[in-house]
Amino acid sequence: METVHFLIFIQFLASLVQGDVPVFNRTLSVMEFNPGCNASISPCKGNAMDTPNIAYTVAKGPKDSLHYVFSSIGAPTILVAKTTKTNMKLKVNWTKLLSDNVTDMKNSVQFSPTPDYSFAVVFTKLYEYNDTDDHANITQVPLLDKLNMSQWVVRDFKNFTWEDLSLNSDAKQNRAVFKTSMINVPFKNNTNSSVSFSMQVFGTDNRETIFPQLKYTANSTLVDVELNEVTPSFLQSRYAVEMVFLSGDGKAGIKESRSIDDEYTPGVFKTVDWKMDRHTSKQPQELGSFVQWKPVCYLTPDRDRQNDTKVKYYPSVNTTVVPQKSLAYAYYGDQLPTVVMSATNVSFGLEKDKFYNKFNYTVWTSVIGYGTPPADEISVLVIVVIIAGLGTPVLVIVVGGIYVCVKKKTKLKVKADFGAESSYSAIN
Amino acid sequence: MADLPDEKEPLLGDGNVQTLDEEEELTGCGGTLACDPRRWLHRFLVLILMCFLSFGSYFCYDNPAALQDTMVSDLQITTSQFMSFYAWYSWPNVILCFFGGFLIDRVFGIRLGAIIFSLFVTGGQVIFALGAMTNKFWLMDVGRFVFGLGGESLAVAQNTYAVNWFKGRELNMVFGLQLSFSRVGSTVNMNIMQPIYNLVDSHMPGSEGYTVLGIVLFLGAGTCIFSLVCALYLAYLDKRAKRILKKDDGKVGEVIRLKDLKDFPLTMWLICIICVAYYVTVFPFIGLGLVFFEQKFDYDPSAANAVNSLVYIISAGASPLFGFVIDKTGNNIFWVMLGTIVTLGCHAMLAFTFINPYVSMSIMGLAYSVLASALWPLVALVVPEHQLGTAYGIMQSIQNLGLAVVAIVAGSIVDAKGYLLLEVFFLAWLCVALIACVLLYLVDVSQGGKLNMSSKRRTLLEKSHEKSTEEEKKPL
Question: Least CB-CB distance to B352: which of A260, A354, A407?
Fold first, then answer.
């Protein structure tokens, strides 16, 4: 165990010298909302309370391009496709996509020519439960009983209605915000209630400026899930979201890693990586995809540290069910039987944090992307302080040691010159 | 609470026990073994009272540290605001440490002085609890300020009592016992405040967090009231002993003369730097330790508090032991260097590894004991006896100033940049202490090396010095 700790230390020293992931930039196209959807297609007219929402951005890099498609159709979904071909385009058959007949949705969203690799992350359900024993653990609540749902409220995201994407998003910043609209039946009569998903694409490596100050890369998207004044059904409500991670080629697993560095999220020393590694064993190993987060979420909009609480995840399971009305279904369509799907729940809260009811707000940030998850590195400030701090006494000791040695030598020399006894010995 | 020089040299003061021709006749209960101030059992009982005199203030000093997580959440304060509870305790003592002796000797007298300081301690804790109960942060800061006015001065009063009753060969043992007792008080606080909070919370469901916090702090004030009762009873017994034994009142005996400061040698200032640079890495760290251990090592609050209290409980036992050893061996500067380097290693362990914190905190407790036992006696070696009062005073003043400022800075660092940077901050201070230590050694070597002498050489030197002065007195 001690070797592991020592290795962490060496690793941080090594990371000073080189970064982990090659650094490059991508140019981002301005985000398009509902590409190809115009008023001539009747479902596209939509209404302000329940609009079809697709946001589309292309991130073009030196070697490959990433096409990002975000949608709230059916369920909030992030679909990412990687290609080396510069002419790949998104094709959406809106009539089929928005048709009432669910099976029509299959393959209504396509990329042409086909991408090299793709993956998707779908937020499928919102769980709310009554945490009477204050364990903050969804596996410790009495299991969903078909006859008695008194301790749970399960909301499927496919039943939500969403506001027009363009109202809340920022196309120039490549940020799409999907916000539930007021007429949502699952929530009570609070006009401010909303659940929103914010997805922002980046073309450079950097770090967000607000907590949890996650690092993002040119291959990733920052995703915020926000529960704003969602009227709780219980006095001791806690929430969780269910997520499904899909890919045509992969094997998924969740791993938590520990670091000595909490500079960017004070008090949080762990990072959770839900990785979808490539199944094929080609060399060099091809890049897979990931969902990364820190196990912390914030109970106030200004995300102050004294009101942060824990985010718990549970072991992922392989699944075969994906919400049919979602973008993932629309894209993978016929391929679904061969697609790898991994699902997990992420719950918010910690014992004694006075539940969701204290502030009626929770926001959780994650980074979803292609390739290797970003790794935190110890900042230059820490290194400089350590080197200066530990180096100076060493320097002083060395200089002082030399001084003492020199002094002793000259003393001996003086003694040798003037004879064995100094003339200033005691009188007796 | 920061250290006082009581661990080493006894403060000056002559508890004269004059045996006059007429001795008071003690009749009835007064003449029994337990009540006769001349007999050992009575003095032993008085010793117990003396030890409990500052128990309440040591207990309540670290209430914030023991309840950090609930305080931050219930009062909705930042870590920096939380650390102001410690800063406000230290601020008054930057100046008051110069006046403690004066107040006891000239203004109040030892008995009244102890009672007054005890009242400040109790009153301060009550105001602190009231502020928590009413969710008024400013009132809590006022409470800690009042608490601070009494806390350190009460320790001076406790030492003065000790010198008065136990001057002679028992004094070092009594000092050691008092300090150990106080450290035990701090440890007890760390380990029982959270369970008490949980108990009160479970009995008051639905009440606001800060109300529960206020109640728990009021319970802490109970220890201060207990100490106040001890002060009152001790005053009665002391007055009685004065009458029976016809002895003088206890005096602190130090004279503080600020103009002495210009005479202080460089070594004295280096010792002050070592003192402040070292202590700011111990006490503010313990103040912030609870949440650090909870978050980095995933400890629950009771385990985190137990680890946090290790430094105190280990120093309770180790300080007297190391005091004895260092007295025997001398070489004080090497011991100070050792203590500093070992503490540096402990903070590095806590910062850069996930090694079990029980290890680092235990070692830190030992290193702290070593340094405290070796550092304070150095003052007596660099400064003449009539300036000792001023020397200790300035050392404590600087120490309190450092603690007050660093407490707030440390809290801000945690809020903005997390615990790794906090530890690096403490490492930087320890490097400053280490540099000062090395410089002290070099300056000392260039001046003949009397600070770092082994005690053997020191006694030889003293003997030859005595002999040579004797020789000088002989007529030629």
Answer: A260
Between CA A416 and CA A424, with CA A421 as vertex, the angle to 5 degrees is 115
Q: Which of A243, A285, A253, A5 lies closest to A121 in space, CA to CA?
A: A243
- Closest approach of chain B CAs to the CA of A222, in angstroms? 22
Token pair listed for B197? 């909070």
Residue A64's identity, in one-letter code, is D
User: Which among B72, B420, B468 has the least Cβ separation from residue A262?
Assistant: B420
- Contact (Cβ atoms closer than 8 angstroms) between residue B46 and residue B147: no
The CA distance from B475 to B191, in Å, is: 68
Say which DSSP state A47 is in: B
Are the C-beta atoms of A246 and A341 separated by less than 8 Å? yes
- Confirm if A236 and A355 have CB atoms less than 8 A apart: yes
Model confidence pLDDT, tens digit, residues B70-118: 999 999 999 999 999 999 999 999 999 888 888 888 888 899 999 999 9
Given this model, what pLDDT does residue A146 score?
46
Token pair listed for B114: 């102890």
ipTM of the complex as predicted: 0.84
Helix (H) or strand (E) holding A153: strand A152-156
Q: Do A6 and B415 touch (CB under 8 A)?
A: no
Tell me which residue of B255, B250, B110 sits closest to B166, measured CA to CA.
B250
**The CA-based dihedral angle spanning residues B329, B332, B335, B341, taken in that order and rounded to the nearest 10 degrees:** -170
Cβ pair B428:A385 closer than 8 A: yes
User: Residue A183, CB half-sphere, CA atoms under 13 Å: how many?
Assistant: 8
Q: Which of A284, A281, A255, A220 is nearest to A78 (CA)?
A: A220
Query: Mean per-residue pLDDT for A62-82?
Result: 92
Q: Report d(CA A240, CA A238) in Å as an integer.
A: 7
- Residue A100's pLDDT is 79
Whether residue B467 contacts residue A428, with contact meaning beta carbons closer than 8 Å, is answered with yes
Q: How far apart are CA A165 and CA A179, in angstroms?
A: 8
Q: Are B422 and B410 in contact (CB under 8 A)?
A: yes
The pLDDT value recorded for residue A218 is: 92
Nearest residue to A312 via CA among A292, A299, A297:
A297
* Residue of A196, A139, A194 lying closest to A165 (CA atoms): A196
Q: Which pTM value belongs to this model? A: 0.87
DSSP string, A72-101: -SSS-EEEEEEES-TT-EEEE-HHHHT-SS
Q: How many CA atoms lie within 13 A of B74 on its CB side?
A: 25
* Alpha-carbon torsion angle B327, B333, B334, B338, nearest 10: 100
Closest by CA to A217, choosing from A60, A379, A368, is A368
Which runs of consecutive H residues, i.e. helices, occur in B134-170? 137-166
Q: Give the model's pLDDT for residue A9.
A: 53
Q: Tell me which range, A18-27, A185-194, A408-417, B29-38, is most confidently predicted by mean pLDDT.
A: A408-417
Q: Are A25 and A380 in contact (CB under 8 A)?
A: no
Give the gap in angstroms from C-alpha B327 to the nearest C-alpha of chain A: 26
The stretches of B246-309 forming alpha helices (DSSP H) are 266-279, 283-296, 301-308
Q: Which residues of A touch B438 (CB under 8 A)?
A: 393, 396-397, 400
CB-nearest to A393 from B418, B424, B438 is B438
Are A59 and A199 spatial neighbours (Cβ–Cβ below 8 Å)?
no
- Give the pLDDT confidence score for residue B20 in this predicted structure: 41
Strand partners, A14: none
pLDDT at A160 over 90: no
Res A428: pLDDT: 56
| Count, residues in chain A | 428
| Radius of gyration for the alpha carbons in chain A, expressed in angstroms and rounded | 29
Q: Which residues pair with A206 in a beta bridge?
A: A216
